[in-house]
Design brief:
The structure is a homodimer. Chain A is built from ten helices and no strands. Chain A is mainly α. Chain A has two domains: 53 residues, Homeodomain-like (Arc Repressor Mutant, subunit A), CATH 1.10.10; 121 residues, Tetracycline Repressor, domain 2. The radius of gyration of chain A is 21 Å and the shape is elongated. The N and C termini of chain A lie far apart (68 Å). Chains A and B meet through helix 8, helix 9 and helix 10 of A and helix 8, helix 9 and helix 10 of B. Chains A, B: It comes from Nocardioides donggukensis. Chains A, B: This is TetR family transcriptional regulator. Chains A, B: Pfam families: TetR_C_16 (PF17920), TetR_N (PF00440).
């Protein structure tokens, strides 16, 4: 009860110090424990509100070990946020079907990923970082480029950047209302009704003449 | 140089302690100084990353004085985020013109407020709180209810909640892309081109048959 964890006060602990009394040895289990702690804290407190020290504390390891395995807090965030669904696999059917009906397929794929609780948690955490410069960069360069970039070029759109930015603006807002702000009736609406509502709009952004 | 500000270590400092050596007396100037410090810190670090103590530090006053004037951190946030534009005034012309063309007027009003740097800063800070439960409540109950609720009822829409949630989903996403994530080409696009792009979509959500 009165024992103090080693390194608790030690901001200046040497970075190379990795093993010692009371610290777990490096192992796949330790990595998984750290990642689980990071996911929990990032989800609860967001990127800015989470420290590597707090993650280490929750995982029962020294902060230096977290840095050793995962690098900076931003690196840890990327590792922890690794979504279960590979975005390239998920959007493949959207692209393969061609432009016709691509709007509907895209909305349906997106909702199937977000409606699944296991894939939603890390994505939600990623979206919670939207207020933070790191989180913004991750969202813009990660999700936007990994998911929407390939769709735009895969479908062979004219003005792909402009069209996919419009698509992103609607899908981002839909996700924000349904999952982040939990605005009714969108939050409780059946996925197929949302597909029917948004598919024509996304299709419009994909292939209608733009002003 | 070696002087320590009173109360620096004092988490349990009595709440009523308001004046003393080294603290500024309460005055309109002090309020303004605190609000300016709060705006700066909330904008820089978001809601979760900002403490009342840090705001007090930046303003050069005791944290108890901040609590005395503004209450909790959430109360301070609301006070600091007070937007320059009264949303009721801003949306009045959208409502007065009736449903016809309301989509276009709404997009134009929104962009005129957001493109103005003075009104953008507090709004941006409000949006940065989207990852945080407090910020979410403020966004949902504040902006959504203050701005979009009156439009839905003022225009006499059928299914106003559903239609305004759809409107919100597109406008929120547009704002996120243009001002928060700064996604090109939306970030640099002339406002009138955005109006022409989004007005038909917003109008659709306002008055088209919905699935």
């Amino acid at each position: 009860m009165t024992e103090t964890r080693a390194g608790h006060e030690g901001r200046g602990a040497p970075a190379g110090r990795r093993s010692g009394p009371g610290r777990r040895p490096g192992s796949p289990d330790t990595r998984a424990t750290i990642l689980a702690a990071a996911r929990g804290l990032f989800a609860e407190r967001g990127f800015a509100g989470t420290t590597v020290r707090a993650v280490a504390g929750d995982a029962g390891v020294d902060a230096a070990l977290v840095h050793h395995y995962f690098g900076t807090k931003a690196d840890l965030f990327v590792a922890a946020m690794e979504v279960r669904v590979d975005p390239r696999t998920a959007v493949a059917p959207v692209i393969e079907g061609g432009v016709d009906g691509a709007g509907e397929r895209l909305v349906r794929v997106l909702l199937s990923v977000w409606d699944d609780e296991e894939s939603r948690l890390p994505l939600l955490t990623l979206f919670r970082g939207v207020g933070d410069p790191h989180g913004q960069r991750l969202l813009r360069d990660g999700l936007m480029r990994m998911v929407l970039g390939p769709v735009g070029s895969g479908l062979g759109l004219d003005q792909p950047d402009r069209r996919m930015a419009l698509v992103a603006s609607q899908l981002f807002g839909m996700v924000a209302m349904r999952y982040l702000l939990v605005v009714e009736p969108l939050a409780s609406m059946p996925a197929e009704q949302l597909v029917a509502t948004y598919a024509p709009i996304i299709q419009h952004y994909l292939d209608a003449p733009l002003p």
